Amino acid sequence: MSHLSEQDPELFETLEREKNREESTLELIASENFTSQAVMEMAGSVMTNKYAEGYPGKRYYGGCEFVDEAENLARNRLGELFGAEYTNVQPHSGSQANMAALMTFIKPGDTVMGLDLSHGGHLTHGSSVNFSGQLYNFVSYHVSKETGRVNFEEVARLAKEYQPKVIICGGSAYPRFIEFEQFKEIADSINAFLMADIAHPSGLVATGLHPTPIPYCDVVTSTTHKTLRGPRGGIIMMGKDFENPWGIIVPKSGRVKKVSELIDSTVMPGIQGGPLMHIIAAKAVAFGEALQPEFKNYTKNIIHNAQAMADEFLKLDYQLVSGGTDTHVLLIDLSNKNITGKAVENSLGKAGITVNKNMVPFDERSPFVTSGIRVGTPAITTRRMGVNESRQIVKWMDEAICKHDDESTLSRIKSNVNDFCAEFPIYSN
User: Is 429 a residue whose pLDDT tops 70?
Assistant: First the structure.
């Protein structure tokens, strides 16, 4: 960083403060993680200099022979990781991956079903403030009030009534396994396409610790960070490629195009221009890491830590949506604690613990206040914290919540957290 410190000391200091924040606090936001130094090295490499519109072997610019190698490595490693025949590693984010998938399979105004945002879904699954809710006619399904799990009776009823062309399964705050097979049965019953968004559990899916959508879903999207522990970005996959059912042909030959060709063209030139080759190459590094045996041990520990935290929260009389977790995510309903998610996010922040406020199913508070928080274990597990550490973190969280107005208590916890984090450095140098 010598060049940055000399050229732009102001930004260098900002960077150093962020580095210190990450090292000295506990990151419990479920969608965040820490990449390896190898991933960061590639993300900050000369690959950022290269424009490469198009796809390997079919670029609109010259000088792409080496970035082609990087993208092909990313695609091949991703296919191996998930058992997917088709992969696209160019989307800049999970939201853009979802946009590309939807724009490939349906047209504006078509009906789609997705999990309600307040019940654990994602903005791109039909929120009115997002392109998904603005371009498509979304019908939301929900979780059961009794179980906190997807209400498949409702899914089947809504599917029959509204006849969506696509059903999306997956979410951003759903702590249980996604039941792809059940969704598939419903989708098949109305001849709908099934799309899986596995942005959150993708690392667990890759290692066989979460059911895979590949045999059941027509298209699968994900981010490359979160449990996959790569750079921020998106991906699209299909278990098997197939001829498009809409009769779209190659003009000159008359050949029916594969769906993969349509997805590729939707991503570029449809919604994106030049791909971020430094990030694609960094994705390839992360996929290579995820193919190693130690990555499965890491994902096992993610789940162990989440379940240990769940057990500890339950002992302390916290209400967990669905009663626990199968994954890396805990969704905590704070209604019985008489405190809002916003207030807890603030008090925990003062204690050196980062979470995000989150709506819970049937929440009566606004998204800016909320009745809950979302907690995740990928980042602390990357720091090599285990079950005992996870239980200790919950005890600190409980104390900070119970004494959220006591600045001296929050300051003391923050000091303890700082010392605690020093024992588990993110980066050794």
Answer: no
- On whether the CB atoms of residues 114 and 187 are closer than 8 A, the answer is no
Q: Has residue 108 got a pLDDT over 90?
A: yes
Q: Which helix (H) or strand (E) holds 10?
A: helix 9-24
Kindly state the tokens that stand for 63.
């000088």
H-only helix segments in 129-276: 131-135, 152-162, 180-189, 202-206, 259-265
Residues in Cβ contact with 24 at an 8 Å cutoff, skipping those fewer than 6 apart:
352, 417, 418, 421, 422
Give the DSSP per-residue string, 42-110. HHTSGGGG----EETTEESSSS-HHHHHHHHHHHHHHHHHHT-SEEE---SSHHHHHHHHHHHH--TT-
What values do phi and psi take at 117, rounded to 5?
-55, -45
What pLDDT is attached to residue 184? 98
β-bridge mates for residue 235, sequence order: 222
H or E segment and range at residue 86: strand 86-88
Q: What is the mean pLDDT of the chain?
A: 97
Q: What pTM, to 2 d.p., does this model score?
A: 0.96
Tell whether 191 is covered by a domain. Answer: yes
Q: Count how many residues are written for the chain.
A: 429
**Six token digits for residue 51:** 């424009």
Please report which helix (H) or strand (E) contains residue 289, including its range.
helix 277-290
Q: How far is CA 200 from the centre of its chain?
A: 4
Residues taking part in catalysis: 51, 53, 197, 223, 226, 232
For residue 428, pLDDT beyond 90: no
Residues 303 and 284 in one domain: no
pLDDT, average across residues 164-177: 97
Q: Do 396 and 352 contact (CB within 8 A), yes or no?
A: no
* Same-domain check for residues 283 and 313: no
Question: Among the three residues 261, 290, 319, which one is the final residue of a domain in this structure?
Answer: 290
